[in-house]
Amino acid sequence: MDEKIIEKLKDAWKEHMKTGNTVNEVIRGVNVNISIQDFPKLESPFVRKFKTINGEKKYVVTPEVQDGYQWVLEDDDVIATEKLNGSNVSIVVEDDEIVDVFNRQNRIKPIHKNRWNLCVVEGIHHSLKRGYLDIDHLEDGMHYGELVGPKMGSRDSCDPYDMDVHVWLPFETYCKEKLSYNSWGKYDKTFDSIKRWFKEGLIPIFYSKWHGLSFEKARKEGYVEGIVFHHPDGRKAKLRYDMFEEFLSDRW
C-alpha cells in the first residue's frame, strides 16, 4: 500500500482518538497497524488530596479547581450526565456494521468460553434490540460506552442497578441524550453548590428508566454513582460520590 495513504489513515485515527472527530475516509480490507486507543481517563474538575478517614487514606476533592478544568464551571454549553458504574466497552463501526469490540485495549472475541465475553455480546445485543444503539446513524470509527448489568459494577457495588440482563450504553448518543441532568446550570456552579447538589441526592436517571419508576421513588431505592461533565469540544470530567470527604465519613 502507498505509504502516504497509510500515514494519512494513521493521522486521521490519531485525530479521531484525540478530539472525537470522525475518520471520514475509511479504506476497507486494508490491514493497517493502527493501535487501538483506550478511553481516556477522566479526572475530577477539583484538586484531590489524600486524607485519612476512619483510619484509611482516601483521595478526596478539595474546593480548588484543577488547572485546565475551569471550563466545567465557566462554559454554559457544558452538560452533566449520570456517570454509570459498569465496564468500559467500545465498538468499531464500519459501513453500518460492528466490525470489532474492545474492553479497554483488549479485543473481545464473540465466541469464547470466557463468560465475561458473553456478557459483552449480550449487552450489545440488548442495546440493539432496545434501540439504545442505532448503528445506522453512527459514523465509521470507534464508539465508547458503558456495559452495565448483573455481572458489572465496582467491588463495593456489584449489579448496582438491579438488572437481570446486560446492556451496553453508548456515551455520545444514549447517555448524553437520555441521562442528562436538566438541573445542571440552574444553580451556582461552585464547589459548595455542587457538593450540596450531591448531598440532596442526584436523581438515579438510568435506574428510574430501567425499572419504570418515578424519580421520587428511584431516589429512595435506586443507585447513582456520580456525574460526567461534557464539553462540546469533547473534553470530559467526572465527579463521584466517593470523592467527597463528607460522603465517606458519613457526615451528610
* Continuous helix count: 8
Would you report the number of β strands?
10
| Structural class computed from helices and strand pairing | alpha+beta
Q: Name the quaternary structure.
A: single chain
Radius of gyration: 20 Å
Mean pLDDT: 85
Largest sheet descriptor: 5 strands, antiparallel
Instruction: Choose one word for the global shape.
Output: globular
**What fraction strand?**
15-25%
Q: Which percent bin holds the helix content? A: 25-40%
How does this model look, in words?
By secondary structure, the chain is an alpha+beta fold. Among the domains are: 1-35, no CATH class; 46-83 and 179-248, no CATH class. Helices cover 29% and strands 25% of the residues. The protein contains eight helices and ten strands. The protein has helices at 3-19, 71-74, 115-130, 171-178, 191-200, 205-211, 215-221, 245-248; strands spanning 46-53, 56-65, 79-83, 87-94, 97-103, 106-107, 141-148, 167-170, 226-230, 236-240. β9 and β10 (236-240) form a beta hairpin. The longest helix has 17 residues, at 3-19. It starts with a helix and ends with a helix.
What keywords describe this structure?
252 residues; alpha+beta; five-stranded antiparallel β-sheet; three-stranded antiparallel β-sheet; 10 strands; globular
Write the layout of secondary structure elements.
Layout lengths: L2 H17 L26 E8 L2 E10 L5 H4 L4 E5 L3 E8 L2 E7 L2 E2 L7 H16 L10 E8 L18 E4 H8 L12 H10 L4 H7 L3 H7 L4 E5 L5 E5 L4 H4 L4
Antiparallel strand pairs: 1-2, 3-9, 4-5, 4-7, 5-6, 7-8, 9-10
